[in-house]
Amino acid sequence: MASPAAAIPDAQAGSPAPKHFAAVLILGLVLLALCVVASLAFGARFVRWNELMDGLFHPEVDTYGANVVRKRISRTVFALCCGGALGVSGALMQAVTRNPIADPSILGVNTGAALFVVCGLAFLNISTASQYIWLALAGAAITAVFVFGIGSMGRGGATPLKLVLAGAATSAALASLVTAIMIPRSYVMDQFRFWQVGSVGSATWSGIGTFLPFLLAGIGIAILCAPALNALALGDDAATGLGVRTGFLRFVAALGGVLLCGATTALAGPIGFIGLLATHLMRLVLGPDLRYVIPMSAIAGAAILTLSDIVGRLAGSPGELEVGVVTAFIGAPLLIVLAMRARVRSL
Asked: According to its UniProt record, where is this protein located (predicted)?
């Protein structure tokens, strides 16, 4: 089966990168490295530099500080993976729907994944990461198809406003179902209540290993689809004229987005707004070319989620504030501003 990018003209495929792309890439990697160091150093217990080095490079050292660092490594790696996945998922969903405020949380995809996980907890007694992931993927995929179908009805097809409204309505309905399933089952509520706000605090290496294939598959799909998605931004007619099979492209790109956000939601909970923040930031800096926006959205998403986790640990000290709460505080005002700007432009 041919890649969706195969039909894009060579002139577009070979167009140069933005002049400042290398500088943005280097800056992004430096900031990401600083976030990693801060994630290992800050928390309920501050770790000094020598303890950080012992925890990373001297396994024979068995001090309390070194063990704290080793405990935080899996959490930091998990935050990087989840943030990168959500950043790329947001870029894909915005490109597929041609909606600048599309995001897994806004379109209801996270809530669909959450509903299936709750059903698994309540009725199937699921307990392993692999079971969580497959149920969450099924819920995310069904919800994505449903929202896009509802948003495509009527005149004008799937407009940005109709998709957001369909996603909001679907998310509210599914959230009500989640509550209805949990209330009479206290054991489900106990398992679900911490997961539902979104957290990377329960990261394990086995969970990361389960998540990694979905992360690599989703990012690979995104990179392969990026040139064709650039053509899709010109409109379906123009993309078809360039040889892009728009239906097939949307299916493949949406599949990549569902893999990324579904797997992340299964293990970390429904963390919102990372895709919105990361993708808009990269579009603002680099322009609309998805061949550069997608990889940089992965870096930006990883940095934003890791930084949000650090803020949650410091703000809630000696406990911690879950990362999903922090991202909601940051993302909700941004969504309001973007919606207002889109409304003004439409007038």
From this structure: Cell membrane
What does pTM read for this prediction? 0.84
Q: Convert the pLDDT of each residue in 63-95 to its tens digit.
A: 888 898 999 999 999 999 999 999 999 999 888
Q: Are 118 and 178 in contact (CB under 8 A)?
A: yes
Q: Do 147 and 167 contact (CB within 8 A), yes or no? A: yes
DSSP letter string, 247-304: HHHHHHHHHHHHHHHHHHHHHH----SHHHHHHHHHHHHH-S-HHHHHHHHHHHHHHH
Q: Which of 281, 295, 264, 272 is nearest to 29 (CA)?
A: 295
**Cα 307 from Cα 33, distance rounded (Å):** 11
Q: Please, what's the largest Cα pairwise distance for the chain?
A: 67
For residues 181 and 114, give the distance between their C-alpha atoms in angstroms, rounded to a whole number.
12
Q: In angstroms, rounded to a whole number, what is the distance separating the alpha carbons of residues 76 and 71? A: 9
Name the residue among 87, 109, 125 with its Cα closest to residue 282: 87
DSSP 212-258: HHHHHHHHHHHHHHHHHHHHHTT-HHHHHHTT--HHHHHHHHHHHHH
